[in-house]
Design brief:
single chain; 316 residues; alpha/beta; FAD/NAD(P)-binding domain; 7-stranded mixed β-sheet; 5-stranded parallel β-sheet; 8 helices; 28% strand; binds flavin-adenine dinucleotide
Length: 316
């Protein structure tokens, strides 16, 4: 494991080495920026064996893409990887301090947060084990894999009618399991209008079957499904939005402008953890995270260029 260079001030500390952080590091490394990239061994898509809907990599195991990205970046000598968790970030432009678990603090001129989100699933026994295979949250990532199957939608929230309509184009049948919740009248009206099978009892558990999974509604009654969608609650995977008092939105994403700048000067954010306020929700995918990493990396570089230019002009 590489130790950080105690005395060096890095141009940019990138926290997170998923697709957002890796792409940001690549962009910055190509500009010969001194970059330190921190990562733990946890990634949001760890539960999924395959990554869908990424051009040129549709169906690739997510770790393969990250490995290829790391190899690309290793060609750029100004980028260092440190496999350690960051515990705190503080400071201001040109003087950020990044505190690292079990390693000396690091200082950096700019910080780029790419620590992603963590998913909290409904409290249904067995759900966590099946998340990423026959239980999914994103129809654009996993909907096609459930094509021509009987697909369950767990929950009764306002997203159900849209998800039902969307999945009815792929699934052989859509079944709503409200898990004991009472749908609002307009949700119920849409479920009825779409003529969907609906079960209103609590789901006591889910179990994998040969053809997908079964949901246990009571000890005698099960619903057989080919796949199921859930709506996880998202939270920031790391505490830096709070520590740095960054503006966040209702869904918990760090508000960023179109270039990835947060509400705090010198702090950029890219990937699942960031949210541009014009988008209805954080656009969470491997490709959008990588694209945001490129943009935020370039914005960080430009910020440093402009700051250095101003210093040179002032000094003359
Ligand atoms: C089950 C599942 C399946 C999915 N399938 C797909 C799919 O098929 N296609 C698709 O496009 N998208 C898919 N997604 C979404 C995709 O996983 C995310 O959009 C993408 O991983 C976001 O990348 P990221 O770089 O923002 O975050 P992540 O990939 O989650 O990376 C976060 C990084 O931050 C690091 N980190 C976190 N905390 C700290 C800390 N304190 N200190 C240092 N480092 C830290 C982690 O170690 C990691 O390196 C799926 C998501 C889930 C949950």
């Amino acid at each position: 494991m590489k130790q950080t260079n105690k005395t060096q001030q890095y141009d940019v500390a990138v926290i997170g080495a998923g697709s957002a952080g890796l792409q940001a590091a690549l962009t910055l490394g190509r500009m010969r920026r001194s970059v330190v990239v921190f990562s733990t061994d946890r990634f949001r898509n760890d539960p999924a064996e395959h990554m869908q809907n990424f051009l040129g990599h549709d169906g690739t195991p997510p770790a393969e893409l990250r490995l290829a990205a790391r190899k690309d970046i290793e060609r750029y000598e100004s980028v260092e990887f440190v496999e350690r968790a960051v515990v705190a970030v503080a400071g201001e432009p040109d003087a950020f301090v990044v505190s690292v678990d079990g390693s000396p603090d690091v200082t950096a001129r700019r910080v780029l947060l790419a620590t992603g989100l963590a998913d909290e699933l409904p409290d249904v026994p067995g759900l966590t084990d099946l998340f990423g295979t026959v239980v999914a949250h994103c129809p654009y990532c996993h909907g096609y894999e459930f094509a021509d199957r009987r697909v369950g939608l767990l929950g009764a929230g306002p997203h159900i009618p849209m998800l039902a309509q969307l999945m009815s184009r792929l699934a052989s049948e859509v079944v709503v399991l409200t898990n004991g919740a009472e749908p609002e009248p307009e949700v119920l009206a849409a479920i009825k209008a779409l003529r969907l099978e609906m079960h209103t009892g609590p789901v006591l558990g889910v179990e994998e079957t040969e053809k997908g999974l079964k949901a246990l509604l009571d000890y005698e009654h099960t619903v057989d499904l080919g796949g199921m969608f859930v709506a996880p609650t998202w939270r920031q995977a790391a505490p830096f939005a709070e520590q740095l008092e960054l503006e966040t939105g209702d869904l918990g994403g760090i508000h960023v402008d179109i270039m990835g700048a947060t509400s705090r000067p010198g702090v950029y954010a890219a990937g699942d953890l960031a949210h541009h306020r014009d988008l209805p929700m954080p656009m969470a995918s491997v490709l959008t995270a990588a694209a945001a990493g490129l943009v935020a990396g370039a914005a960080c570089d430009r910020d440093l260029v402009m700051s250095d230019l101003a210093a040179v002009v002032t000094a003359t």
